[in-house]
Amino acid sequence: MEDTTGPVLYHKLQLWEPGMESEEEEEEEIAEPLVLSLRRSQNTPRNKVRGLPGAWARLLASLLLLAVSSSLALRQLHSRDRPKENLGSVAPQASRHSHHPGVYHHGAIISPAATCSQLGQELLVAGGNVVDAGVGAALCLAVVHPHATGLGGMFWGLFYNSSSGNSTALTAGSVETLAPGLGLPTALPALHLLHTHFGRLPWPQLLVKPAMLAQEGFEVDAPLAGALAAQGTKGLCPLFCHTNGAPLSLGARATNPKLAAVLHQAAMASSPNLAGDALLSLLVKDLGLGEPPAQPMPSLEPALQLSVPQGDLFTTPAPSAGPELLELLKSALHSRTPSPTSCLSLLQTAMTSGNSAVATVDSSGSMLLLTSSINSSFGSGHLSPRTGVLFSNLVARSAPSAWACPLILHGSLDDTESDMLGLVASGMPRGTKAITCTLLNHLAAPQIQQQTQHQAQQRPTESTGVCGQGNLLQVAVHAEHAHVSSVPSGCCPFQGY
Q1: Residue 419 pLDDT class (50, 70, 90 cuts)
Q2: Which of 127, 129, 278, 341 is the most buried (most CB within 10 A)?
């Protein structure tokens, strides 16, 4: 446990579920008593310096204010060197001990984009929970990684709530088409539905930074630059092209003001239905269609569960690949197949699948795994001019997708302090096999702390040679700490506090 001299400012997870009464808000911690006290001391006659002429009293008061101002300025400059402590309205106290990269006292997030992991951390520090952080990061990825995810795609999710002990699956519904070769989007309704039931922060707060990135611009990172170089810019100009028609390169600045307007409108939606209907009506106009089709609504339902000697496994139901994953695991555990020493080869298959994942965890054991798809790199390549949204090319024959298979292992439901492990794959057609391999390795050597610390020795970068192909995100809880890592190591940026 962390030794602190004051109250821990981390907001413990208090998630809403149907039938649960809302908890009272925790007492807000503020860092202003010193400033308020100084103002009172200046305006209170009792605090005048007795026995000194007025000029000397004013001089002494000025020197005192100068000293305090200098102290506050130095403190502010010092905080700028520690961005993780100055990211939200409620900043955590500095720890008196440190950990390996990827191990945090309160909460953490890992995603394919540094900007989106940073946003997730900001939401956690601002008092949000793992659902707020995960949904906010997913909306951010929809802006900065259009080659892999977006509002035109579909989302699946797996959420474990440590407050209730329940595991809930976010299902995207059946895959349907809006027009030949163009998938019907359900991203906004799915994310809004998940947040409505389990989020803590106001829904508009999650869209502020994604909308700002779309409006004011974001830097093209290595995964997007690589996808543009491989795909070309057919159908993607002018958003992702230079004036000469060449694709944007690493470090170039991209904007998507039409998408920013869609996100602003979504922020005002009061229900999951409205969040998707406004976007759908614009997409229908772009395609010159008649009435918008009835879209399949995402739903929340109990996760699939499999009991094994080491604990309980949870995953998402069909049409995801969760059932396929559980069959693979049952077969491997029954046959007692020796666990391979490395699963990296399963992640290094060259491919252009368009899917993305994000994972968040807190030290109390709650975790959210989100995975999304537009089916192939840049989806259909058809850009909606009214919305800046790329249509996916997800059609009925595209599902079930072998990568849509988030998995959570709870060591023992009877032991509230037991270890937990979450796995979610992105960017690969063999996600079920990669997750099966990784879990078998974990069960053979179940020390989560040793595993995640070993894989996180190197700070994430986006220049590692194997990055840009398949990634396996891992989150874990051990000894009241949150752990995040990835396979291959160093490909997916993580943040925490």
Answers
A1: confident
A2: 129
Residue 219, Cβ neighbours under 10 Å: how many?
Answer: 16
> What region, left, alpha or beta, does residue 487 occupy, with left being phi > 0 and alpha being psi -120 to 50 degrees?
beta
Residues 6+ apart with CB under 8 A from 300: 168, 169, 170, 171, 193, 194, 197
The one-letter amino acid at 189: P
- 354-370 burial, b for 16+ CB within 10 Å, e for fewer? bbbbbbbbbbbbbbbbb
Beta strands in 285-354 (DSSP E): 299-302, 304-308, 311-315
Measured between its terminal Cα atoms, the distance across the chain in Å is 14
Pairing of strands 311-315, 182-183: unpaired
Q: Which of 375, 403, 374 is nearest to 315 (CA)?
A: 403
Contact 167, 159 (CB under 8 A): yes
Q: 342, exposed or middle or buried, with CB in 10 Å at 0-12, 13-18, 19+?
A: exposed
Cβ-based neighbours of 27, under 8 Å, separated by 6 or more? none
**Least confident piece of the model among 64-73, 192-201, 223-232, 476-485:** 64-73
Please state the pTM of the whole predicted model: 0.78
Measured CA to CA, the distance from residue 183 to residue 394 in angstroms comes to: 5
- Beta strand 481-487 with 154-161: parallel, antiparallel or unpaired? unpaired
Q: Do 105 and 3 form a contact (C-beta atoms < 8 A)?
A: no
Q: Render the burial of 376-395: b for 16+ CB within 10 Å, e for the rest.
A: bbbbbbbbbeebbbbbbbbb
Q: Which residue is it, tokens 């989106």?
A: 116
Most confident region among 10-19, 98-107, 122-131, 170-179 by mean pLDDT: 122-131
- In this predicted model, what pLDDT tens digit does every residue of 132-163 receive, in sequence order? 999 999 999 999 999 999 999 999 999 999 99
In the structure, what pLDDT confidence band is assigned to residue 35 with cuts at 50, 70 and 90?
very low
On the 0-12 / 13-18 / 19+ scale of CB atoms within 10 A, 21 is exposed
Contact present, 157 and 187 (Cβ < 8 Å)? no
Strands 494-496 and 253-254, by their bridges, are unpaired
